[in-house]
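User: Can you predict the 3D structure for this chain?
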Amino acid sequence: MILERILKPRYIALILEEIPREKGLHIMELPKGTGYEVEVGVEYFVDSTFGKFIYIVKSKDLLILARSDKKLNVKEKEEFLIRNEKGLKRFLISKVSKSEKIKIEGLSLSLAMVAGILFSYFTELEDYMVIIAGIFGVAGKIIEKVFMYYIIGYCKS
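Assistant: Here is the predicted structure, written as structure tokens:
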């Protein structure tokens, strides 16, 4: 919610358990896999549908995409903020394609530990190293999301 107000994304993607049965949704099914047909399917979905909210339902071999202008009252598992159409295409391809996964996890924890250790070493506050690392971890997670939003084009909300 805070990141949404700061970043002001153009699109919001929600990963759901099941596809909502609402009127006004543009729905498309994409097979998971690799290759040119996956990218063409994603580009077709992005170019032929409209709306700010993208709903994604995953199954073993199929991905169901839906798009709408209004946010539906559904329980989502994850929410992603997407900057532009290029970021939307990257995000959808990373969800469909098995070979193009972009993961930057654990970066903030390692940076927090290094920053906490260096800060406690230089200020002689070794007793508070865990607290300082935790503070740097929270700040690092927010900064990591902002960097992902501007560099990759999407981030987890």
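The radius of gyration is 19 Å. The longest strand covers residues 62-68.
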